[in-house]
Specification:
The complex is a heterodimer. By secondary structure, chain A is mainly β. Chain A has one helix at residues 69-79; strands at 10-13, 16-17, 22-35, 47-61, 83-88, 100-106, 122-129, 134-136. Chain B has helices spanning 27-35, 50-57; strands at 2-5, 19-21, 39-41. The chains are: A mainly beta, B alpha+beta.
Chain lengths: 138, 58
C-alpha cells in the first residue's frame, strides 16, 4: 500500500471547489461511549458504541472577493441551511484508493476575520454533519 | 435547472464558464450560490412558432 502525502485533496463546499483556498482538512468520525458496566462485568469497564457524530474542519485562506470564501460561507451561515461537503484525498476519480467522504452539513460558527498583523488571514470552520458521513469508493 | 458558472471556482465538477445542471441542490443551497456570485441562471431561449413565421411571410 502506498503511503499518502497530502498534496491535492479535493474539497467542495455547497458544490464549490475550494481546494485552492484550503490549507488543512480534518474529517472527524466519532461514536459516543456508553458505559454498560454492571456487577457481572468482572471488575472491568465495559462499553458500547452510542450515537454517531461526524464533522469536517477546514482551514480557509480568507478571500473577500466575489465568489470567494467569505461570499460563500457567510450566506450558508446566515441562512442556516444544510449543504453538502465532499472531501477526496486527491483530485482523481473516486475509487477504492481515493474514497470520497460526503456529509450534509450546517455551519454554526464562522469567524470572517481572525489573525494578527502581518499574518495570512485564515479562518478555521467546522462543518457539522446532520446525516453522518457517507464513504463512497465508486 | 441550468446555471452558468460565473465565479472562478468549479461547481459540481465543472469549470468556470460552463453550464451546469444544479437540479439536485435545494433552493436555499442554490440561493447561497447565486448570492455568493458563483452562478447565474441561464435564460431559456424563446421558442419561435415556425407556422406563425410562415404565415407572416405570405
Amino acid at each position: 500500500m502506498a503511503k499518502l502525502v497530502l498534496k491535492n485533496p479535493q474539497i467542495t463546499v455547497n458544490s464549490v471547489d475550494f481546494s485552492d483556498h484550503i490549507s488543512s482538512v480534518e474529517i472527524m468520525l466519532s461514536k459516543d461511549e456508553v458505559d454498560v458496566t454492571n456487577f457481572g462485568s468482572g471488575g472491568v469497564k465495559q462499553r458500547m458504541a452510542g450515537l454517531e457524530d461526524a464533522s469536517f474542519t477546514l482551514n480557509f485562506q480568507q478571500d473577500f472577493a466575489t465568489a470567494e470564501v467569505d461570499a460563500t460561507l457567510y450566506p450558508l451561515w446566515d441562512a442556516e441551511t444544510e449543504f453538502p461537503v465532499v472531501v477526496k484525498p486527491s483530485t482523481a476519480a473516486v475509487s477504492a484508493s481515493n474514497p470520497s467522504y460526503t456529509g450534509t452539513c450546517i455551519v454554526l460558527e464562522y469567524q470572517p476575520l481572525s489573525g494578527a498583523v502581518g499574518e495570512l488571514s485564515e479562518t478555521s470552520v467546522e462543518f457539522l454533519s446532520n446525516n453522518g458521513i457517507t464513504r463512497a469508493t465508486a | 435547472m441550468r446555471f452558468k458558472i460565473v465565479g472562478p471556482h468549479g461547481i459540481a465538477g465543472k469549470p468556470s464558464g460552463e453550464i451546469v445542471d444544479l437540479s439536485e441542490l435545494t433552493e436555499p443551497q442554490l440561493a447561497a450560490l447565486v448570492e455568493g456570485g458563483h452562478v447565474e441562471k441561464v435564460r431559456s431561449e424563446k421558442k419561435v412558432d415556425s407556422s406563425k413565421k410562415e404565415k407572416e411571410a405570405t
